[in-house]
Amino acid sequence: MRDSELEQLLALSEPAAIAALYADAYRMKLEYVGKRVSIRGLIEISNICRKNCYYCGIRSGNGKVERFRISREEILDTVLWAYRHHFASLVLQSGEVASEAFTAFIEEIVREICARTDNGMGITLSLGEQTRETYRRWREAGAARYLLRIEASDPELYRKLHPADHSYEARTACLRMLRELDYQVGSGVMIGLPGQTIRHLVKDLRFFQEYDIDMIGMGPYIPHEDTPLGAGLRLTEDYRKHQLELGLKMIACARLLLRDVNIASTTALQALDPRGRELGLLAGANVIMPNLTDTAYRSGYRLYAGKPGLDESSESSLEALTKSVEAVGETILWDAPGDSLHYFRRH
Ligand code: 5AD
Ligand code: SF4
Predict the structure, then answer these.
(1) N or C of the chain: less Cβ packing under 10 Å?
(2) How far apart are CA 291 and CA 310, in angstroms?
(3) What is the pLDDT of residue 310?
């Protein structure tokens, strides 16, 4: 696919043409992964973060956030709950913390999860930029996948979204290290950022291609009121629609271009529309990541306005999820690790 073709697809405005784009991407998804949805349980283990990204609700500069860190026992309880409920894949996510104590804590938790589930749980980490040695220790402990979004693949745009001491080069270096350490590597961007053009989005897709990314987690940008980027931006009905549509078009283009990668239908889509997650599946995504974090902590992990599911219990949200996936004719792959086909093809 040429850049100009991708640009055209992302710029479509005619509803019938957009529907045709989604349908093409869905056909491509059927060809490569079938009518199957991989499921990962998301556990948000802490909202403490040393970074201060201009768009993010839990940035270190936001004094309004009550910070939490869940204990080893609470994490393991949630993991075992997920295991009993036929999850075979989970994501441990937190803000970025760099300390020996944190590295050792994660290392130990990963080992414990492997031991307590007979290695039956695929573990994905999403814990930000770390040293090679830290990544190595976590890989060796048993984590096989890592998610690190590039957020915006254009260095210029990246600089506008982050304080001066957040380095684009450091982030791409981390992505390369993760690949060298033989992780399945996930990355992604925010879609519909202020200052972002269609050209930027095409570059983002090329970035995934160039870095040979195995899993894509990207979603629409949603303004958060207590952030420099989001203050003053109002989430009107039109804005919502626009962000949702652009997010879905990016999923569709990613599927058409990258074919065999895993693509998540992210919570940000659902925050914009109650059916957002299903719409993502119909536009070519094949992964969903329900939040299993204890509801007591959920409100502390608000990255953007109106994050859904803040007071649902995990049991009831699982039921709702299963129903909504079945309603679009797809089946959840329970008890399956849902590895990236792309990763295995590379090997
Ligand atoms: N809107 C959408 N996504 C956001 N993230 C952070 N802030 C926002 C926002 N305001 C995303 C980032 C980060 C992920 C955990 O959440 O891409 O990598
Ligand atoms: Fe921290 Fe990630 Fe939020 Fe940046 S986007 S402030 S690294 S949690």
Answers:
(1) C
(2) 9
(3) 44
C-alpha span between 313 and 172 (Å, rounded): 37
Mutation choice for ligand 1 from 42, 52, 65, 190, CB with most ligand atoms inside 8 A:
190
Per-residue pLDDT of 244-301, as tens digits, reads 999 999 999 999 999 999 999 998 999 999 999 999 999 999 999 988 886 655 666 6
Ligand nearest to the CA of 94: 2
Whole-number Å distance, alpha carbon 239 to ligand 1 midpoint, is 17
Helix residue ranges per DSSP H, the chain: 3-10, 15-33, 72-84, 100-116, 132-141, 155-161, 168-180, 198-210, 237-258, 267-272, 276-282, 295-298, 314-327, 341-346
What residues contact 148, with CB distance under 8 A and at least 6 apart?
Answer: 126, 128, 129, 171, 174, 175, 178, 185, 186, 187
Contact present, 256 and 25 (Cβ < 8 Å) = yes
188 lines ligand 2 (CB under 6 A): no
User: Residue 298: its pLDDT value, please?
Assistant: 61
